[in-house]
Amino acid sequence: MPEQKRLPLAGIRVIELGQLLAGPFAGTLLAYFGAEVIKVEPPGGDPIRGWRKLDDNGTSFWWRSLGRNKKCITLDLKTERGIDIVRQLIDGSDVVIENFRPGTMEKWGLGPDAVREKNPKLVYARISGYGQTGPYSAKPGYASVCEGIGGLRYVNGVPGERPVRPNLSIGDSLAGLHAAFGIVMALLDRERGGSGQSIDVALYESVFNLLEAVIPEFDGAGLIREPSGSTVTGIVPTNTYLCADEKYVIIGGNGDSIYKRLMEAAGRKDLADDARLQNNAGRVANENEIDQALSEWCAANNSTEILNKLEDARVPAGPIYNARDMLNDEHFQARELFERVEINGKPLNIPAIMPRMDSTPGATQWPGQEVGSHNHEVLCELLGLSQDEYEALQKEGILGE
Questions:
Q1: Which residues, in sequence order, are bridge partners of residue 341?
Q2: What are the catalytic residues?
Q3: pLDDT digits (tens, 9 = 90+) for 127-146
Q4: Which residues span the domain enclosing 283?
């Protein structure tokens, strides 16, 4: 563990409500940079604890990363007592993050208008599939669906084939990033004399936010950007190529001077000097010819040979890494992209969280803990419940213990 420096969000208390990825990822980002994040889970815990590969204790490895630095408590929000305890926690907090279906928090009497009666400076971040308003707001909105309606899936894939999904929950993570950004902006405004405010984050809008020129190109020129395989429409050359050793490399040679160096390194001075190809518009018009030349060059050489030549020529290029490649890479190690935690005596690497800050860096204080591991600390030490009251909650099943 690196020497702990000042944390930028120290002193900020966050109540994290909701499950799975979008809301919890926003909470993870805030907790990494010093916020006290109290994660409220149902008695059985967040379902993500049991998703994908599990460790020897039946807990997902993913949870150890996503749940880091959080104080985990359990409450049954189907009970009045459970809701009342959450209300007390919110009264003494700076931020609420929730990612339930719109209307759920209002049904529990925990909507922003209700809780701001006692805590007017509360920052209230709401994450949902389609937002809190509009005709789609009541629809269930998982990332897979929202990535489609938000435009990402349309441009992602091979022409003529079904749209491709990255093997990650991109829509959820993007929504979590947008929520964390909104929360920090709202806290900054509050520091400057503002009051609390609500942040309405929709998964489909978080995806929509990344569409670059897709909308103005259609509205201004009637152009619909289509899927383009491993290339990017209108920028040439940038593609993925298979080498003689059955490994792929990515080459980005789309700058004018970079293109010339690329083709010279590939032994194609004729194409490097071709008058038609000296700017991007000309290269786009002749994309197939350029791509064919690079494909043939890569197919005749091993990936290491290709990458060494391109590095010497100062052309952006690189391999496609899996998890093993990243862990073994000296640059990843030098940049300290992995943090070592311990789970029941066994070491585990989890990813560090960016951005990298020189004066107030974040850090992993502890990995994702077991269900309800902070119940006593939060309920008794923070809220001031007596031991008898705590034991009554246990007996009534409100904590699920």
A1: 348
A2: 172
A3: 999 999 999 999 998 999 99
A4: 238-242+248-319
